Amino acid sequence: MCLQVALFDLDGTLADSLPLIKHTYRRVFTEMSIPWGSEDVMRWIGRPIVDIARHFAGERAEEFIQRYQYHYHRDHDLYTRLFPGTLEMLQNLRTKGIQLGIVTSKGKTGAWRTVNFTGLDRYIDVMVTAHDVEKHKPLPDPILKAMEILHAQPHRTVYVGDSHFDIQAGRAAGTKTLGVTWGITEREELERYQPDGLLESWADLKSFLEKANRNYR
After folding, report:
1. Is 204 a catalytic residue?
2. SUPFAM superfamilies from the xrefs (predicted)?
3. Contact assessment for residue 9 and residue 129, using Cβ atoms and an 8 Å cutoff
4. Residue range 5-16+82-216, CATH number
5. pTM confidence score
């Protein structure tokens, strides 16, 4: 098969954790008297929490991060689910011999909390978090790190995500890129960044991989 590695963003792509993230940010903004809506913090999803904290809280960034982590972990299990068909999709790819990985801007503790809670841990061969690289999406470093660990070639790899940061990072890393339409970013905005395809459901991923395989022969 042409594409031998499938890497995924976590929040908004595999995990339906955006309600948890929004709930957590609202709590932090309220507690720190930061106006909600002055800039849409949800548009920053896909960037590390450190960057978000520095932008919205300035010198109080460390307090922002501590409050976020407290509320996030306290409410994690109440708000976190996988998108329908995610585990079945991963199982199907694994049976085809495709290596699987997660590349996320989430910190290591939060990412593993989600992965273990949802059962994703049974399927992934590698996970790269914000703590594993110095430079983050939209730069390609996290994806390059995952490919290095898996000994993968960019032209044999696809990166799947829900934000333009994901598309930019994948393109910069030389992989195929796919955007999912059920996450944080609207379809029209994803199209502006020219991914190799857009997924309306996980069934579309199967079709994309089959087409890539036919074209490779």
Report:
1. no
2. HAD-like
3. no
4. 3.40.50.1000
5. 0.90
